Amino acid sequence: MLGLTAFVWKFPWPSATTLSIQPPTAPPPQVTTKQEPAWPPDFRRRPGMNGRSDYVSSRDGTVLVEIPAGPFQMGTNSGGEPHDRPAHIVMLPAYCIGKLEVTNGQFRTFVVATGYRPQWNLSSSSAQTLDNFPAVNVSWRDAMEYAAWAGLRLPTEAEWEKAARGTDARTYPWGNYWGPGRAVYAQSGIRQPGTHQAGSSPYDCQDMAGNAAEWCSSILRPYPYDVTDGREAQDDNAIHVIRGGSWASTRPEELSVFHRDKFRSNGSSVGFRVAASMDVVLTHVVSQTPTTPPPPTIHDHKRQGTTTPPPKVKATARPSPSPTPSVTPNSTPTKPLGIHPIRVQIHPIHVPTPWKPPGPYHPTHTHTPRRYHHQRSHRKTSTPETEQE
User: Fold this and answer.
1) What are the distances in angstroms from CA 115 to CA 110, 128, 336, 386?
2) How many CB atoms lie within 10 A of CB 145?
3) CA distances from 326 to 319, 323, 331, 333 (A)
4) How many angstroms separate the CA atoms of 174 and 172, rounded?
5) Which of 12, 36, 62, 192 lies deepest, with the highest CB count within 10 Å?
């Protein structure tokens, strides 16, 4: 049929009606709305806890805390579930992990920027309308897609546990004993991240016990932990580890740092935080003080992006500084001080003298000044004898 069609189109029949058959066109390319940003983002360094550094991502604003390399105890020998045992030593390289959980505002930015459609419902609770609350109701695949967009990744369960308990094998992020006011648990809903500063981990990570349970990249498998046994494979059909407990937890044991859990039925309590390798972060750290170009000269109008050069400024000779002449009272310096001439004139200070009487008092008139005595001695006085004359 295709050959006949091509033959008819190439050699039309000699009739009044000519068949016009257009050649087949290629199907339009499929346009995807998912935009993969450049990997990885830039990080800004800032002072952290105990002499360490924190790193702020330029893509989603995530604050990453530095976790130093070294061994730590993973698991427990007493308490917990069977898959929480035994305790064993795990060696980890240096890495960074999120100080807080990913919020609704950050996850919404990812959805709007990429057009990604989450697997789970993101509007099942009123708390998810608040940008500064943890993003919950996200699947393991949703968390993985967000981390890839942010240029980061999900932490392994070994990285999560070391960031939560440190190197002293503690039971809770704050110590070995349970205390009220340190975690959000047995509540009616989720809370804003970082509301319980007393429950911080040794590396200043917040809400690693309670509030929102957190996805890890690891598959739930028996201990001891081995990163090379396939538990870090990206398998959507596998059962992945959830750590930290949540606001819906009712027992303190569920909030211990060695407790391993899996997804059950309450997705409104499951969120996540992100992590990154230390070498990746250090490779993309930007300087705190950005370099600025040198100031353009009066003839460098092309660098300024203008088409017309600025008006030329007539340069005037700057007088050389001269030594400061000595200044004496009531004298004017012959040379100007500095660039602008200044006339200096010093006036003497007039000090008034105290008042004194004009002269000594007369001995016969002790209360009359001397000048009044002379005036009275030459004054003509009228007497009875003078009037008779």
Assistant:
1) 8, 19, 74, 136
2) 19
3) 20, 9, 10, 8
4) 5
5) 62
Give whichever of 165-179, 278-292, 334-348 has the largest mean pLDDT: 165-179
pLDDT in tens, 32-69: 333 444 468 999 999 998 899 999 999 999 999 999 99
How many domains, in total, are found in the chain? Answer: 1
Classify residue 9: in a domain, yes or no: no
Q: Which long-range contacts (CB under 8 A, 24 or more apart) does 84-91 make?
A: 84/223, 84/258, 84/259, 84/260, 85/223, 86/223, 86/224, 87/169, 88/223, 88/224, 88/225, 90/158, 90/162, 90/224, 90/225
Could you tell me if 183 and 211 are in contact, meaning their C-beta atoms sit under 8 angstroms apart? yes
Amino acid, res. 25? T
Residue 197 has pLDDT above 50, yes or no: yes
CA 201 to chain centre: 20
Whether the predicted pLDDT of 98 surpasses 80: yes
pLDDT, averaged across the chain? 77
- Per-residue model confidence (pLDDT) at position 359: 61
Q: 127-139, pLDDT tens digit by residue?
A: 667 899 999 999 9
Beta strands in the chain (DSSP E): 43-47, 53-57, 63-67, 70-74, 88-92, 95-98, 213-219, 240-243, 260-261, 270-271, 275-277, 285-286
Instruction: Decide if 56 is inside a domain.
Output: yes
Bridge partners of 213, per DSSP, are 270
CATH number at residue 144: 3.90.1580.10
Full residue range of the structural domain in which residue 230 is found: 43-286
For residue 273, is it within any domain? yes
Tell me the pLDDT tens digit for each residue of 7-28: 334 434 434 433 333 444 444 3
Instruction: Specify if 48 maps to a domain.
Output: yes
